[in-house]
Amino acid sequence: MARTKQTARKVTGGHAARINLYVLQKKRGKAKLAAQKPSPKLQAITNSLTLHSSELCVEMVEMSGFVMRRSVVEWFGIGKAFYSEGEAILSDPPLLLGGFQHSMTSQVASLPTALVHLHLEALEVGHSQVKMLHSFLANYFPKGGYKFSQLGFNLATPESMEVYEKAASNLAQSLSPYSRVVLIITTHSDEDRGDLFAGFLHGEAVSSKVLEVPLKDVVKGADMIFNVCGSIVTKEKSFKDVKKAAQIFNPRSMILFDAPHLQLAATGPYLHSLLDNTIIQGFDVSSAALFALHDSAMLGRHSNIILITWESEDLVVVKLVWTDKKIRPWGNHLPLLCPQCGTIQKWEVGSEQKALSFECKHMDHGKNMGLDGESLPPKSFTFTMPKNAKQLEQGKKGTSSWLKFTL
Questions:
Q1: Measured between alpha carbons, how far is 78 from 70 in angstroms, rounded to an integer?
Q2: Helix (H) and strand (E) counts for the chain?
Q3: Would you call 28 helix, strand, or coil by DSSP?
Q4: Residue 151 has what pLDDT?
């Protein structure tokens, strides 16, 4: 009996998905059609009297000699959206249908973007997280303008170094058309020195200082995300090398984590929100890094966040620390066991202004624990808000919030 090919019908649920904003590509196509018609001025005005909010963009697009300023402020403020040779064509704003799907201050026509994953050769971790971010970003660029690249490195021998440098040079050249580059580096770090694992020699891992890793061709102007364990920032000499590398390689920003053994699954929601706000919505990294804290409490329990950006020509280093009144007072860790009686319990908290006090409430706490058999007072801790910290509104939920330290 002949086999019959069966193809499952593709469905997306009860409603059709909304169309993403591909304004730049779409308007170029309309401009070409308008240029072929005898009355492009009339056609451009007629076709654009009614626009949906999904077509909003804070860009300027030229159509057959006209400039359409599609700024939300102008559409809802001044009310004159179309210009020809500096003069307004329409006295009333176009009719907008629907509602905003993003922030009213954002842009949704993303610049050409490249996502690059630079990883230690033969490293198994990190790929699934990066592919998740790639799948998210790729959906916003169905007609081009997006590139995803992966490059493994093994810098342990001159031969493997030469192979890497050639591949990195070719990669850097291919990135030239892209205005935004996100570079994710995944490797291990030495627990004692904070050096990055650079490759394998005779089957054994070798590491090198951050400054010695050849990144200059790929990094300049990129947003760098380090999928690396926390010793790279907790070790003083290594962290100094990171800041020197920022000045030499000149990236747009750096994101690092200080967890001793970083779990990449915990960083996923934060990085997803960060790329959404920077790449898709067009916000600056400093603002987006704070806004992304709204859904990052689980990351905060696991790791602090280090953000390195530029202010004019000065390097700005910020540390973001999660705090909770009951379990992480002002960013400090409460012990799981009472160090005096050894019981596991929920610490009782009291507060006075910015000070949080905790006391063991075990019924037999301190009983017969003195030198002469006398009872000892309950074990207590007191934490105050650090003077150099700023409590943020972003990510504030219930008894938890985030603190910002400028290092």
A1: 12
A2: 11, 20
A3: helix
A4: 93
Separation of alpha carbons 337 and 340, rounded Å: 8
pTM of the model: 0.73
Amino acid in the structure at residue 379: K
Residue 224 has what pLDDT?
95
Which pLDDT does position 326 carry in this prediction? 83
- Give the pair of three-digit tokens for residue 148: 């995803």
CB 100 within 8 A of CB 166: no
Mean pLDDT confidence for 103-109 = 57
Amino acid letter, residue 333: H
Instruction: Kindly give the pairing relationship between strand 113-120 and strand 95-97.
Output: unpaired
Secondary structure class of 171 (helix, strand, coil): helix
What is d(CA 400, CA 397) in angstroms, rounded to the nearest whole number? 5
Query: Would you say 249 and 217 are in contact if contact means Cβ atoms under 8 Å apart?
Result: no
Where is pLDDT greater, at 348 or 309?
309
Share of the chain above pLDDT 70, in %: 70
Lookup: tokens for 45: 């005005």
Write the Ramachandran bin of 404: left for phi over 0, alpha for psi from -120 to 50, otherwise beta.
beta
**DSSP run (H or E) holding 357:** strand 355-359
Contacting residues for 58 by C-beta, under 8 A, at least 6 apart:
70, 71, 72, 107, 109, 282
Over residues 386-396, mean pLDDT: 92
What are 7's two structure tokens?
């193809």
Distance CA 401, CA 404 (A): 10
- 305-311 and 314-324: which strand pairing? antiparallel
Pairing mode, strands 305-311 and 50-52? unpaired
pLDDT at 271: 96
DSSP strands (E only) in 238-301: 253-257
Is residue 375 within 8 Å of residue 368, measured between CB atoms? yes
For strands 196-201 and 204-208, give the pairing. Answer: antiparallel
**Would you state the structure tokens that stand for residue 215, as one six-digit string?**
């990144």
Which of 64, 69, 37 has its CA nearest to residue 51? 69
Handedness of CA 23, 29, 32, 37 (dihedral sign): negative
